[in-house]
Specification:
Elements lengths: L1 H14 L12 H11 L9 H15 L9 H18 L17 H28 L10 H4 L10 H31 L3 H15 L3 E3 H4 L6 H16 L3 E4 L8 E4 L8 H10 L1
Antiparallel strand pairs: 1-3, 2-3
Helix pairs in contact: 1-4, 2-5, 3-4, 8-10, 8-11
Length: 277
Amino acid sequence: MIERDLEQSMKLEQSMKIDIKLDVFEGPLDLLLHLIEKNKVSIYDIPIVEITNQYMEYIREMEKSYSMESMSEFLVMAATLLKIKSKMLLPRVGTDGNVIEVEDPRTELVEKLLEYKKFKQAAAMLADAEEYSLRVYEKPQEDISMYTEAPDEYFLMDIDSFVNAFNLFLYRKKKIEDVRRHYMRLERQRISIEQKISYIKSFFARKNKTSVTFDELVEEDRDRYNKVVTFTSLLEMAKSKAVGLEQRANFEKIVITKESALDTLDAAAIDAAQAKE
């Protein structure tokens, strides 16, 4: 009879899902966890007799201040603890004197306590996170309706209009590239190496000097392309031993020295050879 009553009590415990807050405890599992931590015992090896006695003392104190309805879950747990206590006290030796292997009656309770402890720790972490978020200032969302309410005109075009606009863009791009290539071709045709060598020979004769700097040679030349042609011409002239080139240190001025072969240098031949390369 007592066994049946205890079984009904356990079924009642499983059906109860309402946590009633009593003092600092939110339910029977909270109270049990408090008693276990208070006694500094392992949750995996609960001294069921001692914990049950302490639990029953707390229940007797609660009866003085709370109604039976508010204590229902605590009373169901009390019945469960008494059942476990009775099973722990029963002899585990059969009539033949051999030890009977039975499951530890505390197993189910331990599993419930571990699960409850896990959720309690998670709830504490969420509470800390909520408290921290209340101290964080968040910038209010800006009004971006002016960007979203008026869509780009290109999105309002039909596919044919979009294709025509894209083809027009490609046509204009090609025209610009053609003009640029033509202009670059004209730039390159403005002066040849032959002309630049002739200019350098006349420069030495006009200045009546045997050595000049590169800066002096291109001083009046504002065109970057012409400066490049001048430097290329000097390299060809140095290869033919018509001039000598010297730069004593990095970024120092380049000194050009006139050699005797300059007067007989065939500028046209050098230009033709350069064109073949």
